[in-house]
Amino acid sequence: MRGRRVGFRQAFHSPWTAIAVGFGAGLSPWAPGTLGTLVAIPPYLLLVGTGPVVYSTVVVVSLGLGVVACGRCGRALGEIDHPAIVWDEIVGFLVTMWGLPASWQNVLLGFILFRFFDIVKPWPIRAIDRGTAGGWGVMLDDVAAGLLSSVILHVLVSPSSVTGLFR
Question: Does the structure show a pLDDT above 70 at 16?
Fold first, then answer.
């Protein structure tokens, strides 16, 4: 059943499925997870200047919404982590970019790092993906990929970093 196309009507039959498919981004026939991550860039750019409390609150609320929405959508589609479900990528990218200034270099590197870890799923991301069920499982592996990407990105852009990148 993996890869079964989801139609517009099916994707928007409830607010929960609309959220889970990233308001349509997950309907892409090509690389819906990548498109879902791209869709996260404008919200990041809107949130980046709001400060850590607002940014973190939006991420935590989005995570909670995602647990419910992705769980319900997965059950409705008959596949808990259906490719059309991209809310996890949106939240994962926001986690990746937490605390980082907006620049095209940061966005590009954050995008590349997040997609790499989300696709490859090294330990512990793979363990979280396989060991957590339902909406939590859909969301937490992407949050873990976002955390790992964020740590690496913070090291690379830190003024005290030995890499000297993006200073």
Answer: yes
